[in-house]
Specification:
The complex is a heterotrimer of chains A (about 180), B (about 300) and C (about 290).
Chain A lengths: L1 H8 L2 H16 L21 E5 L4 H6 L31 E3 L9 E6 L4 E6 L2 E3 L1 H15 L7 E4 L4 E5 L3 H10 L3
Antiparallel strand pairs in A: 2-5, 3-4, 4-7, 6-7
Chain B lengths: L1 H4 L18 H12 L4 H6 L3 E3 L15 E6 L8 E7 L1 H4 L5 H13 L3 E2 L48 E2 L6 H17 L3 E4 L9 H11 L5 E5 L6 H8 L4 E5 L5 H6 L2 E5 H16 L3 H4 L9
Parallel strand pairs in B: 1-3, 2-6, 6-9, 7-8, 7-9
Antiparallel strand pairs in B: 2-3, 4-5
Helix pairs in contact in B: 5-6, 7-8
Chain C lengths: L5 H12 L36 H5 L14 H4 L17 E3 H9 L11 H6 L15 E3 L11 E4 L1 E2 L1 H9 L3 E4 L4 H8 L1 H5 L13 H7 L11 H15 L12 H4 L17 E3 L4 E5 L3
Parallel strand pairs in C: 1-2, 2-4, 3-5
Antiparallel strand pairs in C: 6-7
Classes of the chains: A alpha+beta (about 180), B alpha/beta (about 300), C alpha/beta (about 290).
Main location (chain A): mitochondrion
Family (chain A): Belongs to the mitochondrion-specific ribosomal protein mL49 family.
Organism (chain A): Drosophila arizonae
Chain lengths: ~180, ~300, ~290
């Protein structure tokens, strides 16, 4: 029985098929988990396949592969969503608010105590953080009809915390200043 | 001002001040030269290795703060500036978050630490099965076991139980920030040196000792190359010196960088580190790295 | 002039005058560590916020909703099963038109190609969890007035206003069903290709979803195309815009690209095997 099987395996056609099956079933299976990969069936049960190098359909595959890093935004005449590319360099104002790696303005809302305390956090500040704090506080106090607002500056990590939810206000303000 | 203070490390040299504008011919020469190792005599006539930073992919906020560092030789004990390298400010001039460095150190200490401190509970202490004296009639306090925690020699309540793992995972971007902060701190404190390659001429450990003495490195030095297979000479030379260690760039970590006084990177390692760290800072699938750490994750 | 990165430079400059940063001279930020031990007696021992006696101290609170003997509020009214079967319902996480426009403006998705689940998930900003019965995205109407892109998009659920907003700009919208396995594959195609498994067939919708996806008003992928073009006109008249003619569009090919109801990826047929390493496609031999 064993000799018979060996004789079948040694025929050149089956040899080629075996090579193919190995490249299909062992090489790729290494990437999947051992448990999820199927056991190798008798060779006759596999359909005949052809391997296409540089097929015309490869462009559809490439379309499905994600970019490695976040793509740079391209210049457009208009941005209907309200998003704007950063234009300010911070040279005239003395401070600078960098964009995040997703090209967004780093203004966030932090809620604590089940939403009872809301903090607006401006991140990624460089340069004269105290001047920016004065500017932002003025904007916030104007929207509060002159009522004072509490802020906290962390110079080490380049953050300003503002008491209350002023995310939209400050984001629009920073965008209007080109940050 | 800062640049003036950094004069030992950074350039005050008008011709090559802005490396991006240097001639490409020089650059291509340098690139070919750097790959070929030549003898000592020819090295003198070799053009300077000028390596400007390519900002096309990951532009920093402000290029004016880019750091420039000398590339030194290691083929002789005497120091010679072989070239100049521009370092990306997001990696080598990042905000020195010493608090994040400390968190990294603490994490590196703790994640592999298993506490073996152990105490026995009242059930595990030998004996104590029978009631020491009757419940009533003795005029003594009631007790059910002589190994109760109230007794001398009794079990311990809420004592340490071994093995207790202290494993936890620091958030991914804190680990990245730890690396950039530490590299920036090392560069700012003149403890980061860039060398051409790790090809030293002898297997003699005295060469390394002299080199460190001459260049005012160390005493403890961590030498980092891109690959994990180092040339034979430097392996033999550093083998017997406990305070000089070799490390591939993929193994670079905050703890080792701070454990050694001086960090010595090869040009290749610098490029590799910049590439990897900038990739992590700009990767598209960053959200997948910010999920909760699972023990069985790949 | 204030130098940009002033704080960074200041800190780095300061470090030059300080002793070498070493393992031995680092310490955590002040007050960043919280002591997890509760001091006793003279070491700060008091009530520790638990109050004096009672359920506050002993943590033996009454069960939720218990009203010390009254018929509880939650039992006063007859049973109304609002959420019956909620754990079995299909969930379509929302993405708004505003989000979609932001993705387009920031170059996160390419509108010169048809948009589907894979495009949205590959942007790295959205995820789908088929294990939590998320069956795809629904396009919601937030920011629909500012939507200006001409796209060919395939989502799993869309309202009438959204459909009108897309078609007003000369785009094409289609709602299509994907079974959980297909959603799993589309949510990270690269990872799935690396498994080295042939592309499976996409399943047909379950019985309760057939009605939605065969309806031309929902632009269902199983609806009659002629009815869809009729409904496009009807919707244009209802919302009062002139329907741009797709036939005259230079991107006609892209705008009309659609998957087969059993097809998972654009241009790739079920049964093919994608090898990302060798850049080959393994197909069944056709004789």
């Amino acid at each position: 029985m064993a000799a018979n099987a060996k004789a079948i395996v040694n025929t050149p056609l089956l040899q080629g098929l075996k090579q193919l099956v190995r490249s299909l079933h062992t090489d790729c299976a290494r990437l999947s988990s051992f448990r999820s990969s199927r056991e190798v069936q008798p060779l006759e049960e596999y359909p005949e396949v052809e391997v296409l190098h540089n097929p015309p359909e490869w462009k559809y595959v490439e379309r499905l592969l994600p970019p490695r890093t976040v793509p740079q935004p391209v210049a457009k005449p208009a941005y209907p969503s309200g998003w704007k590319p950063q234009t300010a360099t911070g040279q005239e104002s003395g401070y600078f608010v960098a964009r995040t790696k997703n090209h967004m303005v780093p203004v966030y809302l932090n809620t604590r105590f089940r939403g009872q305390r809301r903090l607006t956090i401006v991140r990624l500040i460089q340069g004269d953080i105290w001047a920016l704090e004065r500017d932002l506080r003025q904007v916030v106090e104007q929207s509060r009809n002159g009522k004072l607002c509490a802020t906290r500056v962390n110079e080490l990590s380049g953050q300003i915390h503002i008491h209350g939810d002023y995310v939209d206000l400050l984001r629009e303000h920073l965008k209007s200043k080109g940050f | 001002m800062l640049k003036f203070l950094n004069k030992t490390r950074q350039l005050l040299y008008p011709n090559v001040r802005n490396l991006s504008h240097t001639v490409t011919v020089c650059q291509s020469n340098a690139a070919t030269e750097s790959t070929t190792t030549t003898g000592k005599e020819t090295l003198v006539s070799k053009p300077a290795l000028i390596l400007p930073q390519n900002y096309a992919e990951h532009a920093p906020v402000s290029r004016s703060t880019a750091r420039q560092a000398w590339i030194e030789n290691v083929d002789a004990v005497t120091e010679r500036k072989v070239g100049l390298m521009e370092l990306h400010p997001d990696v080598f001039a990042a905000q020195p978050r010493v608090d994040v460095i400390q968190e990294n150190i603490e994490w590196q200490r703790k994640y592999r630490y298993v506490s073996m401190a152990h105490t026995k509970t009242r059930a595990e202490v030998r004996g104590g099965g029978r009631k020491p004296w009757p419940q009533k009639g003795m005029g003594r306090a009631r007790h059910g076991s002589i190994r109760s925690p109230l007794f001398k020699g009794g079990g311990v309540i809420h004592g340490p139980r071994s093995p207790t793992t202290h494993f936890y995972m620091l958030p991914f971007y804190k680990r990245v920030m730890g690396l950039t902060s530490t590299l920036s701190v090392k560069l700012a404190q003149d403890d980061l040196h860039i060398i051409e390659d790790v090809e030293i001429p002898t297997k003699d450990a005295q060469f390394i000792r002299d080199l460190i003495q001459e260049r005012n490195w160390g005493p403890s030095v961590l030498i980092v190359d891109k690959h994990d297979v180092f040339p034979e000479n430097i392996c033999y030379a550093t083998d017997s010196i406990g305070y000089v260690n070799l490390m591939p760039a993929y193994g670079l970590n905050v703890y080792s960088m701070l454990k050694h006084d001086t960090l010595v990177l090869t040009v290749e390692a610098v490029k590799h580190l910049e590439e990897r760290l900038l990739y992590q800072l700009h990767r598209n699938d960053a959200a997948s790295k910010q999920t909760k750490f699972k023990l069985d994750q790949v | 002039m204030a130098h940009l990165r002033e704080s960074t430079d200041k800190a780095l400059k300061l470090l030059r005058t300080l002793p070498r940063v070493q393992i031995g001279n680092l310490r955590p930020n002040p007050n960043s560590k919280q002591n997890d031990k509760r001091g006793r007696a003279q070491h700060g021992g008091d009530k520790h916020g638990a109050g004096n006696k009672g359920s506050g101290q002993r943590q033996n609170f009454m069960r939720l909703g218990y009203e010390t003997g009254n018929q509880p509020f939650y039992l006063r009214f007859p049973y109304e099963p609002y959420y019956k079967g909620h754990h079995m319902r299909r969930e379509y996480p929302p993405i708004s038109m505003l989000q979609l426009q932001v993705l387009i403006d920031t170059n996160r998705i390419d509108i010169s190609q048809p948009i589907d689940i894979a495009t949205l998930c590959n942007s790295g900003l959205m995820t789908l969890k088929p294990a939590e019965l998320q069956y795809g995205f629904q396009l919601t109407d937030e920011g629909l007035d500012n939507f200006k892109a001409k796209i060919n998009i395939e989502v799993q659920h869309a309202s009438e206003a959204v459909i009108a907003a897309v078609e007003r700009n000369g785009g094409v919208i289609r709602t299509a069903y994907y079974d959980p396995r297909s959603v799993h594959i589309l949510s990270n195609p690269k990872k799935w290709f690396e498994k080295g498994v042939p592309i499976p067939l996409r399943m047909l919708p379950p019985q309760d979803a057939i009605e939605y996806y065969t309806d031309a008003r929902n632009r269902g992928y199983l609806a009659n195309p002629e009815e869809i073009s009729k409904e496009r006109l009807v919707l244009a008249q209802k919302y009062g815009y002139e329907l741009p003619r797709i036939e005259d569009d230079p991107n006609y090919e892209m705008l009309t690209a659609a998957k087969d109801p059993r097809q998972l990826f654009h241009g790739l047929e079920p049964g093919w095997l994608i090898n990302l390493v060798d850049k080959t496609i393994v197909k069944l031999k056709t004789t």
